[in-house]
Amino acid sequence: MDEGDRFLVELFYQELVRQGLGLRTCQRHRDNLYFFLEAYLEASEGMRLGEVDAETLDYFLSRWYPNKVIGSRSELNGFITSFRRFFRFLHELGEVPVKCYEEIFGVLSRRDYYLLNFSKNSGNDLGGEKTGVDGVGSSSVGDMEYGADFFMDRGLYLLVRNLEKQAVNLVSDFELFMDYLVHHRVQLRFGSGGLPRRELHRLNQMFSSPERFNRSSGQEQSQRISIFYQLGRSLDLFVVGGYSELLVSPRSEFFLELDFDQKMVILLDGFWNRMRWSELERFGGNGFSSWAQEQRGGFAELLSRLPVGERVEISHYTGSEQNLRMLSNYLKVYEVVESKIMFGLKEFGILDYEFQSGRDSYSKRNHRGIESIAISKFGKKIMKYFARRAREEMELGSLIEFMDEALHFI
Question: pTM above the 0.90 mark?
Fold first, then answer.
């Protein structure tokens, strides 16, 4: 093994110990990285750590591990957690450039996809002997399977099904969006890649509450259609074919046949966990969208601490309340959160908000300048659940401290 690679792994291990993580957990992360280095990178690819990119990790998680390793979904899940921690550590050391780190984070955000893929393909050997991984783990990750490989988080499904929620038009609006793509030939605009203005305005008028934007506006000015487009791509409901034509996949038919709660869970999970927030960011944004998504567990924690139904002012907050200060900073620093994610959360019935009076034209055009927010009872329960899942997956004692460190770093 290359001494430089060994040094980085040991440095990472020492940092985990310094952070107060349990010794067994620290050792497991180190063992996962040594296995990745020795069994895959060096033996199969002839590579070093400094050469790892998003494509390398994707192949390891989607093809090599399921077909070459006698392991479990739980162990594969552990590798994903180890990679997330390790490459964030390397990025903070300056070993991984921002663009490369964002691409790697995008791959590692597809946890559910890799676990599903493992269940389907484990045992389809690529050739050669299988390699064992030390340790025993459970293969249960709390998912439910529906037609066309739609998986749902069981806990989230039970919450959505049993909690009283406000009238949510998002599901029916998304159905209209998909139905339109099924029955109309749509080609993306050359250059910008968005929907043509004609389709954009047709769709907008079909929705339950049309957005207000100019006839000359492009897709980036529609929060709803920007989110729907990226959700559909993330869930593989359509693909971009030749001549930039949107081609609806057979999965869309299965999706449209699901009941309301099932659709709601798939869309909510897709919005929060599967869709890359960086894809929502308009051209020329601040480029921190992937960091915002990585800290979404802390964001969920902050939202879950808000009082139900009470308007809380967060615009330019300068008080001593840490939760409100961090919430204000999170929206201010990460443009994509205020301009797109908050709109999506409102559409799901998670929260509501009001804008500052007298906003300038830039703020109006880009959905900036939120003055106050109020979380619903349903939203508080959902955010508590997302925060708990984030703590379990990232093995963090405090999501807020992790978030605060990242905001200070920026």
Answer: no
